[in-house]
Each structure stands twice: as C-alpha cells, then as structure tokens.
Amino acid sequence: MAYYDLREWISAVDKAGELKRIKAEADPVLEIGEVTDRVSKWGPRGEHGPGGPALLFENVKGHPGAKVLINQFGSERRMRLALDVDSLDDIADRIKAFMDVKSPQGLLDKIKMLPMLAEMGKFFPKEVATGPCKEVIQRDNLSLLDFPILQCWPQDGGRFITLPSVITKDPKTGKRNVGTYRMQVYDGQTAGMHWQRQKQGAEHYREQMRRAAAAGEAHPVTAALDMMARSGGGSRVAEGKQVAGRMDVAVAVGTEPAVMFSSIVPAPPDIEEYMIAGFLRQKPVELVKCETVDLEVPATSEIVLEGYVQLDELRMEGPFGDHTGFYTPEDLYPVFHLTCITHRKDPIYSTTIVGKPPMEDAWMGKAVERIFLPLMRLTIPEIVDVNLPVEGIFHNLMIVSIRKSYPGQARKVMNGIWALGQAMSTKCILVVDEDVNVQDLGEVALKVLNNIDPERDIQFTLGPVDSLDHASRLPDYGSKMGVDATRKWPSEGFTRPWPDEIRMDAKTREQVTKRWKEFGLE
Fold it and tell me: Is the pLDDT of residue 232 over 50?
C-alpha cells in the first residue's frame, strides 16, 4: 500500500493504535524533546512495546493551531507499517529478486521478464502540474520561525530542523539527490546546511564550486573547496579567493514515509532516492516544480522551503545533541538562504529528536540494516548476516557472520566493508562464523571473547571515520579496528586442536522435551 501523504500515514498509525494525541500545551523549546525522549525509551512492558507510540502534539506553545508529529518511526512495528511489510526482510527479498534476474537468452525469457519490467515502471517518479504542497505560496514576508521548530537539548546552538528531505542536483549529470541533513535556524531567512563531507549533497556543493572556478568566476581555491575548513568566526566567506555563484536547494518537510525513509538510506550514487521511494511504495512519487529554484519536490509535502547556498559563505553551526549521545561541537557549514515557502493549509510539522539510544533513529537504522543486506552481499557474497547494534549508533560497531572458505577471509571481509560507501566509517567490525547468530549479543560476546587471541586476531587501520566521531585523532580521520573471531585453521597458522562446542545430543533433548511436564517445571 502506498500512503498518499503524511496525513494518510498518520491515520494508519492512529488506526493501528500506535499514535498518542497530546492536547496539553507543550513548548517546542526542550519540553517536547524531553517528553519524546522518555517515550522513546519505553521498554517491552510499555503499552506500545519497545519504542513507545508516535506523538502528535496539537497544542504547541507560541504556535496557535500548529501540530508537531514526532517518533513516527520509533518502533519496529511502525517501521513495518510504514513500509507495508510483515517483516523488514521482505523488502530485502524483493531487492534480491531483482538482483537475481539474468539476461534473457531467448524470446521466452524475454516474455517472462515483461511483468518485472512493468513493475519496474512503477518506480520512476512522475511530474505533475501541482499538488497539496502548493496550497499556500509565500514569496514575501518569509520566516522559518513561523513553524514550530524544536530545540531538543539544553546546549544545542538553537532550533534545528531535524527531519528534512534536502534536494539538490548534480551539476554534471542533473541527477537529483535527496538527503536528510539537519539545519540550524539562524533567523527567519537563513539556516545552517549540515551536509557532512562524505554526503552526496556536499559533493554537489563542491562540484558546483569547481565549475564556478573553471568558468572563470574565480580562481581555484583551497579552503573554499573544503567546506569543512576549521577556523573561528561567525558568518563569513571561506578563506582563500572567493567563489562566485550559488547552488539551488529545496527542502521538503512532512513527506509520506517512503520518501522520508529513502532520504536516509545509503543509496548507491547512481540510484535516485525518488526511485528508491517508488520501489518501497510500489507506486511512483509525484513531483512538482519549485517556484524559485530549478528543482522538483514531492507534491504532497506538508512544507517546502526553497532557497540556495552561497558558494563562498560558511558559518558556525552547532553544538547539536546527536545520536552518539554527545553534543557535536561547532563547525563551519554552508548557509541556506530562503527564497520561497510553499505549504499545505494548516501544515503538520514533522520532526525527530536524537540522543542516547534507543530513540526513533535506532529503528530507522535497523530497517536500513535489513533492507541493504542484499546489496552488501552483492559485493561481499560470503556475508551471511549483519547486525548494527543500536548502542553502536550505526557507525561504531558492525557484527558480521560469514561463510568461511579460505584462510584470511575474515580480514578480506573487513577491508571490503571499509570500501563500501558509508560503511567506510565503521569504527569496529567483528567477524564471526556463519553458525553464530549476530542478532544475539550474548552469543556474539561468548564466541568473540572465547575465539580470539588479541595480538593475532585484531587488525588496525587508518582511514576516514564518521564526522561525529569525537574520539578520532583528527576530524573525519582516524583509526578503525577489525576483529577476526572466526575459528582458526591450520592454514592460518593455528596448529592446536579447536575444541568442540558443548551441546546436548539430540536423543536426550527430545526425550526431555517429551517428559517436561513430568518434572513440574511448566
């Protein structure tokens, strides 16, 4: 089922008993964040299970009539509901089915492919003349402060738009990118654009600067091309010679769940996120053209912010209470300038809060883990399963089980993972044998700690790390660790006998199962 818009999605969540409407007045500065943090950490005994319910605040202080939706993806059940599947592995199976298609060898094979080709046609976005996001169009007297944007944590640098779909276009190919990058609101007309160095939006920004320099608008620059240049100061142009020009940016807030989810997934660079959303919802995403920039946005968005980033302008952004459980310190990022706002009548502001796990983003991350396992196997076929523990906040720990066929294969897998897109910043990789359930952390700890000789089995390497890693020796650069916790073979230099794991024999287990009631241990 494809949800038409955010409102249809909210109705589905409500019907499933997964929504709480908050009638009491709540302050978008800290108070909504504190309520959501408590709810998101409800345990298995909670009324709604792990993660607590989605929250719709209907009485927001300072914003009469406004509504704030938060924690919409904050449980496994809601992630399954959002993607309309019984299990997140169902989507992985669909992806695998498409990847397993072989080139047709004859007419019969081609005929058999027709239904799949027809299904693929559903994925392509469709441009429409107008949509609900155009119900109100504002070109004058614009202000981001009209919306109930949250300040989540006490030391945050201000209010942040935390769940935007930021749309940019590749200057070389024209391919669109949709990414979720937080935006610190500086004032009514400007906001920080926090696209980290390795993100596709940042690469579009750098390419636009290269083109401006090559076109003679300015000489090649050094620090300006490095948008992460670090030095003090407030709003200013980057160090070095100025680069003239600007890059169009559009921001959609409050999209239906498939579009929102597709903007956070680590998609291959050549695959457009609107295509991924179409695949997830089995129906094309409808797009409308923006009013003041050359970009297309989801037609049913609640709010669309149109604007640009000036190529030679950087400003301090942060601090921000991040999903690591720590504050990300201040740093220089481009500045988004607002040129137009379009929105639905009485728009619903969709947002999230991140912090010490588990929180809403944990469930989104687990969905990414399951859905993109087939793509990892495409490059590293010996992978059996992967677990990104919530406490590892996505980039700090990956547990991988493999089907081991030759000596040194665990180390080959580690290096393969560090070569995969966003997985390149994984700080610690644990590799275990295929018979280890990587989703059972107790079993993983038992096998890893028993199976390793630390000096022999731990490998260190240097390379890119996550921008949020406050422990790295330098920003974006530091060390990573791989642990080979597989059984060691003689061909790997291990000549001692490897002991058998303790297991009861099948006959005794079956006998005890049949007699269990006799023991009075029901």
Answer: no
- Catalytic residue, from 248, 312, 322, 331: name it: 322
* In contact, 95 and 276? CB cutoff 8 Å: no
What is the reported pLDDT for 237?
Answer: 43
User: In this structure, is residue 326 part of a structural domain?
Assistant: yes
Could you tell me if residue 445 is inside a domain?
yes
Contacts of 222 (CB under 8 A, 6+ apart): 239, 240
**Tokens at residue 72, please?**
């919409």
Assign 460 to helix, strand or coil.
strand
CATH number where 441 lies: 3.40.1670.10
Question: Nearest-CA neighbor of 165 among 79, 248, 90, 263?
Answer: 263
Q: Is residue 198's pLDDT more than 70?
A: yes
CB 442 within 8 A of CB 453: no
What are the tens digits of pLDDT across the range 102-157? 555 555 554 554 455 455 667 889 999 999 999 999 999 999 999 999 999 999 99
Which candidate, 392, 421, 261, 263, places its Cα nearest to that of 324? 392
Domain count, the chain: 3
Q: Is 385 a catalytic residue?
A: no
Q: Which of 420, 395, 414, 425 is nearest to 486 (CA)?
A: 414
pTM of the model: 0.86
> pLDDT digit string (tens) for 142-172?
999 999 999 999 999 999 999 999 999 998 8
- The CA distance from 298 to 432, in Å, is 43
Report the C-alpha gap between 278 and 285 in whole angstroms. Answer: 6
Contact 265, 352 (CB under 8 A): no
The residue segments making up the domain with residue 62 are: 6-82
Asked whether the CA dihedral 419, 422, 425, 430 is positive or negative, the reply is: negative
State whether 307 and 391 are in the same domain. no
CB 257 within 8 A of CB 9: yes
CB neighbours of 272 closer than 8 A, spacing ≥ 6? 125, 175, 176, 177, 178
More confident residue, 202 or 410: 410
| Measured distance CA(452)–CA(447) in Å, rounded | 9
386, 336: one domain: no
Same domain, 420 and 470: yes
Residue 369: what are its φ and ψ, rounded to 5°? -55, -50
